[in-house]
Amino acid sequence: MKQITCITCPFTCRITIDVENGDHVSSGNMCNKGAQFIDAELSAPDHSITTMVKTIFPDIPFLSVRTNGEIPKNKIKKIIRDLSKVIITERKGIGEIVIRNISGTKCNVIATSDMLYTANFEQAAKKAELIKQGKNQNVVTTKNPA
C-alpha cells in the first residue's frame, strides 16, 4: 500500500494505492482528476519546478523562476542543486529565459517576476561590474537569449 497526495485541484486528496492481481487500485480521490494524476504519477511522474535564484542586484537579490514545462521527477533534485548555484548578472523580465534546456529536459527556466524596473540601477551596475571582473568566483553568468 502507498499513499500519494494529489496536487491537481484544491482538495489535495490523500489517495491510497494498492496492488491487486498486478493492477493498481486507488481510493480516496474526490474527482476524476485524482485517478488521472495517479496514472501519470505511477507511469511517468513529471513535475514543474518553481524556485528562486540569486542575483547580483542589491534591490532584487532573488529572482523567482519556474520551468516552462514538466520535467521527470528523477531529475528534480539535481536541477534544484544546479539552480542553487546560479547567480543572475543581467536583469530579466517576466517570461524571459534564464536557462535554456535545463539538464537536457527540453524545458527552459523562465523568470516569473520583473527585474527590469528599479531605482537602484547605478548601484547594481557597479556590483555587476565587480562580479564580471572576477571578484566573485561562484557566479554563473546568464545572458539574454538572442
What would you note in describing this structure?
With 146 residues, this protein is an alpha+beta fold. It has 2 domains: 2-43, no CATH class; 50-132, CPE0013-like (CPE0013-like fold, Roll), CATH 3.10.530.10. The chain has helices spanning 32-43, 76-84, 121-132, and strands at 2-5, 14-20, 23-27, 46-47, 50-57, 60-67, 71-72, 87-88, 97-99, 109-111. The strands form 3 sheets. A 5-stranded mixed β-sheet has the order 8-5-6-10-9. A 3-stranded antiparallel β-sheet has the order 1-2-3, covered by helices on one side. Strand 2 (14-20) and strand 3 (23-27) form a beta hairpin. The radius of gyration is 20 Å and the shape is elongated. The termini are far apart.
N→C terminal distance: 50 Å
Question: How many structural domains?
Answer: 2
Structural class by helix and strand composition: alpha+beta
Question: What is the 3D shape?
Answer: elongated
Which whole number gives the mean pLDDT?
Answer: 85
What value does the Rg take, in angstroms? 20 Å
What profile does the largest beta sheet have? 5 strands, mixed
Secondary-structure element pattern, one letter each = EEEHEEEEHEEEH
Mind telling me the CATH class of the largest domain?
A: Alpha Beta
Q: Which fold name fills CATH's third level, the topology of the largest domain? A: CPE0013-like fold
- Low-confidence parts: none
The number of distinct helices, counting runs of at least 4 residues, comes to 3
Strand content: 25-35%
Strand order within the widest beta sheet: 8-5-6-10-9
Q: What's the helical proportion of residues?
A: 10-25%
CATH homologous superfamily caption of the largest domain: CPE0013-like
Give me the count of strands. 10
CATH architecture of the largest domain: Roll
